[in-house]
Amino acid sequence: MASPATRPSNGKRVxxxxxxGYRCAECGWTTVKWVGRCGECQAWGSVSEEAGPGGAAxxxxxxxxxxxxxxxxxxxxxxxxxxxxxxxxxxxRVLGGGLVPGAVVLLAGEPGVxxxxxxxxxxARAARGGRKVLYVTxxxxxxQVRLRAERxxxxxxxxxxAAESDLGMVLGxxxxxxxxxxxxxxxxxxxxxxxxxAPGGVSQVREVAAALIALAKERDIPTVLxxxxxxxxxxxxxxxLEHLVDVVCQxxxxxxxxxxxxxATKNRYGPTDEVGCFDLSETGIIGLTDPSGMFVSHIxxxxxxxxxxxxLEGRRPLATEIQALVAPSVLSNPRxxxxxxxxxxxxxxxAVLQRRVGARLVDQDxxxxxxxxxxxxxxxxxxxxxxxxxxxxxxxxLLPGIVALGEVGLxxxxxxxxxxxxxxxxxxxxxxxxxxxxxxxxEPTGTPAGMTVLEVADLAQAVLVSSGPRxxxx
Length: 474
Hints:
InterPro entries: AAA+_ATPase (IPR003593), DNA_repair_RadA (IPR004504), P-loop_NTPase (IPR027417), RecA_ATP-bd (IPR020588), Ribosomal_Su5_D2-typ_SF (IPR020568), Ribsml_uS5_D2-typ_fold_subgr (IPR014721), Rubredoxin_2 (IPR041166)
CATH class of the largest domain: Alpha Beta
Low-confidence stretches: 470-474
Protein name: DNA repair protein RadA
GO molecular function: ATP binding; ATP-dependent DNA damage sensor activity; damaged DNA binding; hydrolase activity; zinc ion binding
CATH architecture of the largest domain: 3-Layer(aba) Sandwich
Strand order of the largest sheet: 6-5-7-8-4-9-10-11-12
Mean pLDDT: 87
Oligomer: single chain
Structural class: alpha/beta
Largest sheet: 9 strands, mixed
GO cellular component, one term: cytosol
Keywords: ATP-binding, DNA damage, DNA repair, DNA-binding, Hydrolase, Metal-binding, Nucleotide-binding, Stress response, Zinc, Zinc-finger
């Protein structure tokens, strides 16, 4: 039986007007009423009304051919799409050679990590090379940026500065300057007057990013966008922002350390397993071609409780020293304190040492730290962590010039790790003469000159071959 709403008393059928629908811009989830939070991906502010069937929105139809007709792929000129070096070698390493014309790079990181300082240095280097650079800041005043530029010596006539937070004004500055490089700091502070919402909202970030990307592609202007991050370290704003840009880089670093690491999590023009290392100081930020020296302090002066390992940051090997201190505890629950080491991995290694090697640690406080603020969280540091802890417990230093590589299993076995050849080459370059590695990790022809490789199958064997002369009574 038809309802009165669809079949009135006169017998004529009346079509009910289509109800409006709402769709999430992040995941495509639909609902019949507006909600502030998507019920599928839990994103806030991403649900908006969409035109229903039979609405006013017309179907897209074919238009006249574009200005650039389709051509065979073999006739496309690739010289204009070659990467141009930025002058910062560590940044070029991560980007895959430099900035590609028309490419849009999103650089994200925590506050105070050095994003603006790095990009201001890159802009100044490009300006000294004869290219026009437009630096748009939406967070600071021109005077503040000028003071930073003076401190890092980034003043140049070809570097133009604009403090704007309106998208229309930013596009007007681009028309006026016609830059060869555009830097926007940051995309969350720019807003469009044609879109509702506060700056940094989902709709605003999407509109600003889309406009700047379209401008970069149309005029072949390499563009760098600075992005904010949330409390958990992810990039603030809609997830589509990362899909729209060509390169996504994460700038990481501990505020108590001068070391900064730049990683590419997405790169359409290069690798995503490269890492750039920088040293941030009061005079600016410089690239570190050899950062291993920052993480090693006792190459010659060996003391109990220290062991060096080689970690892989992307494809770059970094020598890292692990220090351990074991002292009798007066507490019912002994302390387990770490810095730069995963606490869960330390707990596992301590359990294996006590069960498989017989080291008594249940009544001992254990403190483990890395040198220089490095983070050693990959499984390959397990063996060095175990040897440093046992060395501190027995008060016996390890062999001089030794490094340890390997993952420790719960049964006490030493498991192979990836990139052993690169790790050993880095250790040999730094002057290490002995290396403890899992069995079968290195081929006879892959051993660096002047280095003795000691292959071990389990933790007990590793302790035996790495122990040095006893300096104190047990």
